[in-house]
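Quick start: what a row looks like.
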Amino acid sequence: MEKIRFVKAREEDTDLVLETLNEATQYKNEHSDDAWGSESWQEREIADSIEAGNRYLVYMGSEVVGSFVLVWTDELWADDGATAAYIHQLALNSDFH
């Protein structure tokens, strides 16, 4: 089995992340999951997470299999100051469903 690695996304990864998220959104909608809506992701949304250092790519060997955002606080959850990590926008490349 190939090694899985997590690497911080860079500005030049924006299009790859957009493609992965848009494919994942389409897949979710086709399977009655509209949690992400039906609109395409915007480049600015991705660029913001990359600039903040929160966007990661998931590699299996040399191939990108997905991406996600990792944050250490989240206002949507009862963040009472406890140490926790939150993963958002977890999306897999369509070849890895």
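That is the whole record. The chain is about 25% helix and 30% strand. The chain has a mean pLDDT of 91.
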